[in-house]
Amino acid sequence: MKKLLTLVLAVAMLLSIGAVSASAEDLNIAYMPNYASLWSVVTGIQMGYFEEEGLNVKLVEFADGPTIIAAMESGSIDMGYIGPGAHKLCINGRAKIFMLSQIGNADAVLARKSRGIETYADLKGKKVGYSSGTSSEMILQYALEEAGLTMNDIQAYEMEVSSLVSAMVSGSIDACAAWSPSTATIIASDPDDIFSMCSNVTFADRSVSPASWIVLSGYYGDHQEIVLRFARALYKAMDYGSDPANFEQVAKWVAAQCGVDYEIAAAQTGDAAWPSSAEIIAGAQDGTIEGYYKVQQDAFIASGAVEKEVPVADYVLFDIMIEAGK
After folding, report:
1. Which residues pair with 195 in a beta bridge?
2. Is 197 helix (H, G, I), strand (E, B) or coil?
3. What single DSSP character describes residue 105?
4. Closest CA to 182 of 16, 30, 35
5. Can you give the residue ranges of every domain in the chain?
């Protein structure tokens, strides 16, 4: 009788585990292969925070934010991470932001001194690579504006980020606008010649560079509870990842996901100030985060990337940021 009871309990336990596993929600989550994109989501996976929320996260790599939004619109991606440049698509109504990831400093304009480039004005007439619709294009435009130049004053070459690296390293272009870790790879290829002309901090007086987690309106309307659970898991991951004592471990996870050496991932820990859940919740409640997105939108309007002002609350889900902390 005792053996039978033990067997019944064991079977019940297995059935219970199977039921939990079967009820887990499968999610396809888009990311870009860098520390800024992965620092919270890879931590959430490794620490089991998504699993605790009944979510089974599958990471899918993309090159940039606009491509991620297009994939979401096709139905292959549920939620995703975007850098600063793609936020104009959210302002224009194509997606909604449900979580601030960080305020970044990962973008830079790089140039070769051997091509006669020392100042922004020297970019005139030069071959300059950039990635259209991303933060790469944004920071290049800011640099040109400093010298009273526009994209028409340079030989602008639109290309994917991977192509930017190869074109700059080979010397087929004179300068480029890219983001980490591509910037570090480019400089390391010829540190005596290639230098960074500017970064996001250079233009902090006119622009901030928020990176965010996004979702389509339709998906959010049908799966609000899933988005909330994903946000709760992100908060747990942010609290772990924002602690400097854990930077080394997070960098190891990022390096493994991206298939790069640890040193490359670790070098990116300075690309932003990594926020805790308390900082994001407080910022969502007191208007600080709304201010970030408003400054960003104003910069898009000034550059012509966005036609008219849109209330920030129309595309940023502050309620999720606050509710996920309860």
Report:
1. 111
2. strand
3. -
4. 35
5. 24-103+210-323, 107-203
pLDDT tens-digit map of 35-81:
999 999 999 999 999 999 999 999 999 999 999 999 999 999 999 99
Q: Quick one: tokens of 281? A: 């919740």
Domains 24-103+210-323 and 107-203 share a fold: yes
Give the whole-angstrom CA distance, residue 138 versus residue 299: 9
> Is residue 50 classed exposed, middle or buried when 0-12, 13-18 and 19+ CB atoms within 10 A define those classes?
buried
Superfamily grouping for domain 107-203: Periplasmic binding protein-like II (3.40.190.10)
Task: Report how far apart, in Å, the C-alpha atoms of 139 and of each of 124, 144, 266 are.
Answer: 16, 9, 24
Topology annotation, domain 24-103+210-323: D-Maltodextrin-Binding Protein; domain 2 (3.40.190)
Query: pTM for the complete prediction?
Result: 0.80
What's the token pair of residue 30?
């888009």
Task: Answer whether the bond into residue 84 is a cis peptide, omega within 30°.
Answer: no
Cα–Cα nearest to 125, from 174, 182, 190, 62: 174
The three-class DSSP label of residue 306 is coil
3-state secondary structure 20-50: HHHHCEEEEEEECCCHHHHCCHHHHHHCCHH
